[in-house]
Structure formats: C-alpha cells, structure tokens
Amino acid sequence: MNVTCPHCHRANDRTTCADPNNPDAQPNPGDVNLCFNCGGPSIFTEDSPRLPTEEELEQLLANPRIVHAQISIREIHLKAGNG
C-alpha cells in the first residue's frame, strides 16, 4: 500500500499493523498511521491519510503507545545517521 505522509509528503510504500493480535490487518478508515520518515501521525481515510484534527492530535499525543512509537522512529533514524 502506497501512502503519502500529509506532514512531510514522503511516499511510504509499506504499512504494518501494530496490533499483536492481528498482525496481517490492513488499515481501515479512522486507523492511525505514523510516518516512518518524520513520525507524524495521520488518520487513514478511504483514499489517503489525512492530518488529524486538533482534538485527535491531543488524544494521539496523550497515548503512550503512539509516543513510544514516535520515539522509536526517531531513534532508528539517529542510529542510522539520518537524524
């Protein structure tokens, strides 16, 4: 699945599900996406990810799993010298 990040506009050619109970799941409208390039959160729609609303963003940034995933993305880039 190709998705373009609404934050950094990078085309990402893969998605993965973070649900350990359903690792083969495909994204559905309303699901959260984190860009592997910038770590920016977005919300899947029928067509493409969109920026979260202010309320959605507040909820996402209050979620420890989201914040941990964003930190992990940054650490991967730093270790690779891309930071």
From TrEMBL:
Source taxon at top rank: Bacteria
UniProt-recorded name of the protein: Uncharacterized protein
